[in-house]
Amino acid sequence: MLSASAVIPWVLFVLLCLVFLAGCGFVVLYFLAGKAFHFIFDRPLPLPAYDRSPTEINQDTIYGRGQNWFYSNRLDFEDVKMTSYDGLSLAAYYLPAKEADTKRLVILIHGWKDVPANMAAFAQMYLEKMDCHILIVHMRTHGMSEGRYIGYGLSESQDILMWTALMEERLPGPLNIIYHGFSMGAATALIAAGSRRLPRSVVGLIADSPYDSFENLIGNLIRKRYRFAPRIFLRLISHFSTMNIGYSMRQISPAALAKYIEVPVLLIHGTADTFIPPHMSEVIYNRLQSPKRIFLVQDAEHVMSYDIAPSSYSAEVDQFMQYCGIL
After folding, report:
1. Is the pTM of this model over 0.90?
2. Fold annotation for 59-213+252-324
3. Under 8 Å CB-to-CB from 216, ≥6 apart: which residues?
4. How far from 137 is each of 26, 36, 178, 179, CA to CA, in Å?
5. What is the per-residue pLDDT across 24-80, written as a single tens digit (0 to 9) for each?
């Protein structure tokens, strides 16, 4: 039988080994979290030297056909520039209404790793309904807009409010403005509306396939791929985002701000969306206290609701704009 004096060194040795292994594991996790941060937040594509159309456009979807229409009518769109609150040069496409004194403006907001021209299908939809001004923004770190890190709606919401102020200065008012975004663009519109700084000129917003919180979205995606998503890993990614961007993933939460939204909201989501599950729109819907409607499109994958059901989608937009008093 071993004496206590003989056992203690072995216990200490085992404890030291466990501490060492735990430390090594944390170092590895910290390194992977840093890699994950850059994959998630870094600019997806370099800033191009100039804006040009792609050599080929897949027109199998309504978005591809809209993109083809956009580049076919590119000279009708004006390039607009603005400096963001943090000094970035931001770009947008602006199509003026046929009647210069038209009060209706639609601001279209694209999603993550997307191009503004993909929102042209919605521009076509609105122009078929009414004479209106159209602004399609290049989100920061996308297209012709500067930026190193994607804000997933928090930084971008401030950009949208500044775009709104710019258009209010440029166009004869009072304006009636609709925000229409999908995916990250939808989250951006919701966060802007929930900021309690929304101008009175914004009379409603359409959010197609938003996430309830960015932390939940990333957790779901990691869990889907690796079967687990350790909380400490998400916290480490948030640590890197706080260090580099100035805020954590937890702060990017349309659902948390939904109760502050005062304008009508139309939520749209595809039931077959596996990237951003439709229950995330339902969470936002349940927290909204303003006039609201949710439209679920059967069998539509991520942001494909308009492509799957264009007539029903357009009819929902008609009904919403009539409620907002601009159609």
Report:
1. yes
2. Rossmann fold (3.40.50)
3. 280
4. 41, 27, 14, 11
5. 555 667 878 889 899 999 999 999 988 888 888 889 999 999 999 999 999 999 999
